[in-house]
Amino acid sequence: MNTDIYKESPVVHTAAFIDGHSVEIPILKILQQDGTVYDGAELPEINQEHAVKMYQALAFHRVLDERMIAAQRQGRISFYMAALGEEAASVGGAAGLEPQDMIMAQYREQGALIYRGFSLENFMNQMFSNEKDLGKGRQMPIHYGSNELNYMTISSPLGTQIPQAAGYAYGQRLQGQPAVTMCYFGEGAASEGDFHAGLNMAAVHQCPTIFFCRNNGYAISTPSEEQYVGNGIASRGVGYGIKTIRIDGNDILAVLKAVQLARAYALEENKPVIIEAMSYRLGAHSTSDDPTGYRTKEEEAKWHAHDPISRMKSWMLAQGWWSEEQETALFEKLREEILAAVKVAEKIDKPPVEDLVSDVYDQVPQHLQKQLDDLKLHIKKYPEAYPFTAGRIK
Amino acid sequence: MAQMNLLQAINNALDIAMAENDSAVCFGEDVGHFGGVFRATSGLQEKYGKTRCFNTPLVEQGIIGFANGLAAQGSTPIAEIQFADYIFPAFDQIVNESAKFRYRSGNEFNVGKLTIRTPYGGGIAGGLYHSQSPEAYFAHTPGLKIVVPRNPYQAKGLLLASIRDDNPVVFFEPKRLYRASVGEVPTEDYQLPIGKAEVVQQGSDITLLAWGAQMEIIEKAAEMAKKDGISCEIIDLRTILPWDVETVASSVMKTGRLLISQEAPLTAGFASEIAATIQSECFLHLESPIARVCGLDTPYPLALEKEHAADHLKVYEAIKNSVNY
Ligand SMILES: Cc1ncc(C[n+]2csc(CCOP(=O)(O)OP(=O)(O)O)c2C)c(N)n1
Ligand SMILES: [Mg+2]
């Protein structure tokens, strides 16, 4: 390839740098904040049923986040991460995929899981780390995963899913599956070595991976100006020879359009795509964070005006696909259901003590069985010290 | 003297190190304006400017690679890895670069001025990736020094010694104690020795050895044992590498028994290394097998972290077993 570059490059005889910002990257916008479509904008494939499903997922997302932040403040769960203001990226992304497509997310993409139908009980059981949690109460709240829904379990170490998404997609291609892998990550995580490794692997090995960067302006307290100097994350796609698009991440129709195009291309050409969705993290990084230490209320207020959910709602109303009555009824129903589900989940037992040693390997090896047996004897001796498990040890 | 919590003691040590040495630079994810997610670097950017205390991009291998280069050049990098659980992207830079820089170049170059600070340990409902104690991975790497303080006084004196030590040091901070551990700390400059364990309490029946946040646990267990008439000698190892064999061995020769407790899983933890060495140093003095009370050999769990942990009750039981052997 190097020799090709040598042959194809135009020859000059005066030393001159090309500028690090010379690649201009447009941003796709379809829907305006007032719910009207830009003149000449090309709509994604969408019908009323599809749109209502998307909107319901957005509403669920918003109410879930509100309720669970409150539940964390009340000490009912230990931790939470909301995606306030960024819901369109995950919901719109999932809406542009097929159910057989794998989603490998970072952590702020519960919207994709909602869209795919992860049950309210499943959300709650994970956050309350109870014995019905699919992840067996092992990970912090919001680390969801579902084999059935093709949603890879979240891992806290940032960026690790990016090269994995190349490998997963390679396997899908190898086995002739009509499926792609969607990989979400933040603009902060895109600084990790794994990001660069993943994009290059996917490009070189022709993997049908959609790399979806949620550029929300912050990585905890670090603003994107201190994260990179180049033209966002999208410019890196060009560097790796990958088809690249930048979109308004708060415009759910732009998200849907980009993902539909990306999916078709990735599947037909067996090549990766990168989408950079520009947005803003309206809330705190997590319930452990307080943004007043690093940004102003005025800055936040500006972005409140770009709310993706009210934008979609206005469009839906204008289409005659949604009404204020439906709106009120939906939000009321969601608030009640979610509150009720919290009350159920918090009463369910923690996982049994055996779950401490299961799944470390496919089978429990001898040394772990012995550690478990010793532990059980110990717990029987001091039952008050281990209230979650003591009552259930035979 | 002033009352400080462990974070304030660390912040104070960093302040002293930066004031005395213009080439001392603090950096890592969110350490700049915000002062770090735990606020250990709070106020340092305001005081020393953005060129000496700053946010880095979110890339641990970059942070330590950059720090290695900076140290090789002769400056004094004090790099923060936000959680010890996230140090692994930098494993190559630490294990193959920091640790071997001096040796491979015949001492033409070194990164002795490097200090890596990182919060470690569990008991904070952090689950798999905000709870690990990875000291043993690094202890397998000749060329590194590894230091773990147990309280604010120790933290300040040991961190200043680590920054000034002419070897790369990985400084593990017990994050469970960041705000919980409060004590009297001299406001002036002082250092505590690297490579020296500390006998925290004299005793005659058994030696209890730990480091960092686990010290609290063995102290609590020793209190329980005292009521049974068992006299425990308590030692804080303080430095994992190179560790103080002499202090531990002379204690064990006196008590005839050793219990080592660590948060990390049992298998191939640093307790195993200590047990092997003390067995050969003190074989004829031992009255019972050396006991290890450690985390289970599993990833760090969430809901059942109490069950998983090497808590004071497990240590207490092991003390009794050892004494009644
Ligand atoms: C390897 C690694 N380093 C550090 C962290 C700590 N951490 C968790 S989230 C985060 C910021 C991520 O920012 P970004 O990727 O932009 O995603 P956003 O939170 O904005 O959605 C950091 C530094 C981590 N989880 N993993
Ligand atoms: Mg971000």
SSE order and pairing:
The complex is a heterodimer of chains A (394) and B (325).
Chain A: H1 2-8, E1 27-28, H2 48-73, H3 87-95, E2 102-104, H4 110-115, H5 120-127, H6 161-174, E3 181-186, H7 193-204, E4 209-215, E5 218-219, E6 222-223, H8 234-239, E7 243-248, H9 252-269, E8 273-278, H10 297-304, H11 308-319, H12 324-345, H13 366-381
Parallel strand pairs in A: 1-7, 2-3, 3-4, 4-8, 7-8
Antiparallel strand pairs in A: 5-6
Chain B: E1 2-5, H1 6-20, E2 24-28, H2 44-48, E3 53-55, H3 60-73, E4 76-80, H4 91-97, H5 101-104, E5 115-120, H6 135-139, E6 145-147, H7 152-164, E7 169-174, E8 182-185, E9 198-201, E10 206-210, H8 214-227, E11 232-236, E12 239-241, H9 245-255, E13 258-265, H10 270-282, E14 291-295, H11 305-308, H12 312-323
Parallel strand pairs in B: 2-3, 2-4, 4-5, 5-7, 6-7, 10-11, 10-13, 13-14
Antiparallel strand pairs in B: 1-8, 6-12, 9-11
The structure holds thiamine diphosphate and magnesium ion (MG).
Thiamine diphosphate (TPP) sits between chains A (108, 156-158, 186-189, 214, 216, 218-220, 281, 285) and B (29, 58, 60, 82, 86, 89).
Brief characterization of the structure:
The complex is a heterodimer of chains A (394) and B (325). Chain A is of the alpha/beta class. Chain A has helices at 2-8, 48-73, 87-95, 110-115, 120-127, 161-174, 193-204, 234-239, 252-269, 297-304, 308-319, 324-345, 366-381; strands at residues 27-28, 102-104, 181-186, 209-215, 218-219, 222-223, 243-248, 273-278.
Give descriptors for this structure.
heterodimer; A: 394 residues; alpha/beta; 2 domains; 6-stranded parallel beta sheet; B: 325 residues; Rossmann fold; 5-stranded mixed beta sheet; 12 helices; globular; binds thiamine diphosphate
**Helix and strand composition category of chain B:** alpha/beta
**CATH architecture label of the largest domain in chain B:** 3-Layer(aba) Sandwich
Radius of gyration of chain B: 19 Å
Q: What string, H for helix and E for strand, traces the elements of chain B in order?
A: EHEHEHEHHEHEHEEEEHEEHEHEHH
Instruction: Provide the CATH topology of the largest domain in chain B.
Output: Rossmann fold
Overall shape of chain B: it is: globular
Top CATH class of the largest domain in chain B: Alpha Beta
Instruction: Return residue spans of chain A where pLDDT drops below 50 for at least 5 consecutive residues.
Output: none
Low-confidence stretches of chain B: none
Chain-averaged pLDDT of chain B: 98
CATH superfamily of the largest domain in chain A: Thiamin diphosphate (ThDP)-binding fold, Pyr/PP domains
> Into how many domains do the coordinates of chain B divide?
2
Radius of gyration of chain A: 23 Å
Give the overall form of chain A: globular
Mean pLDDT of chain A: 97
Largest sheet of chain B: 7 strands, mixed
Give the spatial strand order of the biggest sheet of chain B.
Answer: 3-2-4-5-7-6-12
- Describe the main β-sheet of chain A briefly: 6 strands, parallel
Q: Report, as a whole number of angstroms, the end-to-end distance of chain A.
A: 66 Å
